[in-house]
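Sorry to interrupt, but I need a hand with the structure work. Could you write out one complete protein record for me, on any chain you like? Could you add the entry underneath, on a fresh line?
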Amino acid sequence: MRQISTLSCVTALIIAATAGAATAANALGPTGTQRVDGVIVVSGNTCTWTDARTSANPPASLSVDRTSVNAPGGNLSCTGGITATLNNNPNVTFDDAAGRAKADAIDITGTQYGVSCRYKATGVLLDRDGTTRRYVNQAFTATKTSGGFLCPGSVSTAAGDASLLFH
């Protein structure tokens, strides 16, 4: 079913909203520009954005500014006819000793073929890639918060299906 594939991509965007694009990863340590890139590939569809603003540099706790992810202020785009909107400013905390980041909540709406589905995931964990500021998701499940019967009640995203690069 094409809709299930599309909705999986929307859910995967949830993690992409917090956690990189095809740029070089930064060495471990503070980053300089308070920016984050995100990428996700699910069921043959790819969603990306670059240079979203953050409120601080890792390892300090920060929030991702949704207005710099979503168009027109940002450049979030997806293949496969999907449009997506990040509905919140995710707060991200870092534990450098454990090599981990955690997003408090991610709230996103995806639309394809006129069907909109809204999902929320909480406590999303991401593992640092070596000594870089690139983080890759652990498996998680997002729960539907609104949308019709064509939207599954929840969707799962496998570990490694999305990443964020802070720079």
Notes: Residues 136 and 163 are 4 Å apart (CA to CA). The radius of gyration is 15 Å.
